[in-house]
Amino acid sequence: MSEAGGGRGFGSSVPQRAPWSLVAATAALCLVSATSVWTAGASPMSREEKQKLGNQVLEMFDHAYGNYMEHAYPADELMPLTCRGRVRGQEPSRGDVDDALGKFSLTLIDSLDTLVVLNKTKEFEDAVRKVLRDVNLDNDVVVSVFETNIRVLGGLLGGHSLAIMLKEKGEYMQWYNDELLQMAKQLGYKLLPAFNTTSGLPYPRINLKFGIRKPEARTGTETDTCTACAGTLILEFAALSRFTGATIFEEYARKALDFLWEKRQRSSNLVGVTINIHTGDWVRKDSGVGAGIDSYYEYLLKAYVLLGDDSFLERFNTHYDAIMRYISQPPLLLDVHIHKPMLNARTWMDALLAFFPGLQVLKGDIRPAIETHEMLYQVIKKHNFLPEAFTTDFRVHWAQHPLRPEFAESTYFLYKATGDPYYLEVGKTLIENLNKYARVPCGFAAMKDVRTGSHEDRMDSFFLAEMFKYLYLLFADKEDVIFDIEDYIFTTEAHLLPLWLSTTNQRISKKNTTSEYTELDDSNFDWTCPNTQILFPNDPLYAQSIREPLKNVVDKSCPRGIIRVEESFRSGAKPPLRARDFMATNPEHLEILKKMGVSLIHLKDGRVQLVQHAIQAASSIDAEDGLRFMQEMIELSSQQQKEQQLPPRAVQIVSHPFFGRVVLTAGPAQFGLDLSKHKETRGFVASSKPYNGCSELTNPEAVMGKIALIQRGQCMFAEKARNIQNAGAIGGIVIDDNEGSSSDTAPLFQMAGDGKDTDDITIPMLFLFSKEGSIILDAIREYEEVEVLLSDKAKDRDPEMENEEQPSSENDSQNQSAEQIASSSQEVDLVDQESPEESSVNSHPESLSPADTDNAASISPPEQNSNPTENHETTSLDGECTDLDNQLQEQSETEEDSNPNVSWGKKVQPIDSILADWNEDIEAFEMMEKDEL
Ligand code: DMJ
């Protein structure tokens, strides 16, 4: 038995230091105390209904886990559309997202402690045996250090934590002898070579067999990592050290955290998204609480809770103040620049930030948590799921949704903090939406596009590790869980680590760290793990009263202007020259540009780039104007790029046994019936002969009145369409002839016309990549009669999908056609991305693409998880539009009055200091300019 296991027990978990013990021992406890306090507001949910929902969660988990075990195990993940395992190397690469897959049965390991939380002890015991029997951690595969840590190391440690708990109870796991912990230790040692940098920040990837340096490793040349990647290790590494007594893990994780802290931008106390692991320079200087940074903040606060180390609380509080000062614009959380924190770096938010309200609950700052959560919930109600990114006026920016659990996590914590049954209703909606839109016969499929309802052949392991835990716990009473959940802390992957680790093997590891440890003043403990009796003194309607003003924030929002004009700028000012009016051939315009410090670079390929050097501006006001101009130009450029794209369409298989549950992402055609303007087309499918559809069909009787399947290639798409139309087909699906192509990995494809008039083509035509096409072809082989629906948005499936003839709504059509305003995930990146089907806006000298300039304030560097193929959606503007900018402005002002910690006066930054801040950016850009030209 492990040292820790032997000494554990609630008695030993009482920490030694008073302030810490107050927080750590009650960290989770404080979250539940309000559940019994609730007396009014949304109608309370009966015990029966809660149990019913809890049972539904159990059934859903069985469906996901059962299908994984049956059809995918020992592969890392289930592919729920094709009902098989995802094995790295055997599927087309999806880029970084595949770095989580190490051929170590990821989903099984990530699910271990979920099984215990969901009371599936017997299954847990079986699962642990399988892990010990089957899992190999020594594969020649390059994995992400971050993902391996949170999912695999965390999964093994969570499994170990609950295994020793069960063993001590005396019924299950009696044979267990710390085997999972030994595996965790083995894995810990495999990850350590990643820390072999002078900074102590880990390399982002490691080869499980060969480490980093050896040539066989195929990794180790990276220079950058994300802040969350380097700053989300301490819980797992410290737990590993404390469970085993091997101090090295906690020391390494502390050293990485110390380095990040040292490198924080001192004037804003913010951190950037990516950092150079050798020099410590910030590579991406934008800063938010979502992708790339999120769990760094989470781990600072939770490290304080788990380890009782005040320095972590002090750091968290320092960052939290900065977040609330600059990033929080209730109910929004918007990225800013670390050097110019009053300047927004984006006009959109990503879905990962949905964890933040949960963290705010742990911090004790309930009000903004309620506000942001409410805003997110309204976005979900609009699209059924939270899109990967959405704009400040709540349009879809990136349309995927990989079944992320962050919103469920925050819902759980808010319910625990407020006891407001409203949050149970929110959970109920999440369950309904998952069953209605994501459930497929073989598991749950990620949404490829929340607007069309199309699926992706993907069920990430975090869905089992996190989603089911939080949903189950949301509806569970104490007696529904076989152990006391309050004795544990959740890692970022929702793995459970026991709080008694705080007093185990404490001799570890402050040595070799650079941070100073000072006594904290009392203000550091304000709010931290609040007593909910104090938070909601006599007002059970507290949470509701905060949500009320935000009730229509999404529905009634109007598309925003491009720029949020900062208070440090002239109020309401616009650049003297608007981006949309600019002509590169107009001498007056060029003169204005010059004044603003913006220069024009003619690239060799004929395109033109804009660069702003703020210090070359005629005055500080002109520099600000230039900044705004550049921001406008970025937005305009990205819109122009995407305006030429049509949104994706959906092919939904409606016949037995699919009944509408499988929705395939389809590419649109620039000709034929526009499905966004007409009702969907429904029909049985038939292969055309010849299959390429390039000549008159020889089997018109087979395709008459049906949807013809045609293979891509050999002639124009329009020609195929005419041939099947002449044979009497009511629609066509062109299937890609590039074997293995898939909408998971390829950008949206749209079929162009033949350059002539295509008005004669009146049937709808859609395009499927080969993988999606083969799902239909396989279905024909198996079931012969396969009926599909071609539409702009999948229809809700009811049990039989019987003879439904719902006209597509006017609004939807309008939305779809307006959806062509589009996103670039990254404005700068798109400069060189041309769809083979389109001419680039950059090929015309008048159409300018802003370069990635020294002006980091106006241009964000490329996103890690950018997806340039997604389209924007324009919100349908039901009812009256409110001026959200003003609303938010007013809210900020109210906040300002009521929150003495927020000193808005500090927002005015002298131009000298702004210019000084920019110097660094300018140097970086000049380097880049050299490279590019
Ligand atoms: C999980 O793997 C973790 O929560 C991580 O911190 C970020 N988000 C994913 C799921 O969305």
Short summary:
The protein is of the alpha+beta class. It has 28 helices and 30 strands. Helix 4 runs parallel beside helix 17.
Give the tags.
single chain, 30 strands, 933 residues, alpha+beta, 3-stranded antiparallel β-sheet, binds 1-deoxymannojirimycin, 7-stranded mixed β-sheet
Question: Could you describe the 3D structure shown?
Answer:
- This protein has 933 residues and is α+β, with helices and mostly antiparallel strands.
- It has 28 helices and 30 strands.
- A seven-stranded mixed beta sheet has the order 24-23-29-25-26-27-28, sandwiched between helices. Strands 5-6-7 form a three-stranded antiparallel beta sheet. Strands 12-13-14 form a three-stranded antiparallel beta sheet, with no helix packed on it.
- Bound molecules: 1-deoxymannojirimycin.
- Residues 150, 295, 352, 404-406, 462, 492-493 line the site of 1-deoxymannojirimycin.
Beginning-to-end CA distance, first to last residue: 63 Å
**Total of helices:** 28
Helix/sheet category: alpha+beta
Oligomer: single chain
Q: How can the largest sheet be summarized? A: 7 strands, mixed
Radius of gyration over alpha carbons?
28 Å
Global geometry: globular
For the largest beta sheet, what order do the strands appear in spatially?
24-23-29-25-26-27-28
Q: Unreliable segments (pLDDT under 50, ≥5 consecutive)?
A: 1-39, 511-515, 560-572, 804-933
Number of strands: 30
**Proportion in β-strands:** 5-15%
List ligands, each type once.
Answer: 1-deoxymannojirimycin
Helix content: 25-40%
The overall pLDDT, averaged over residues, is 80
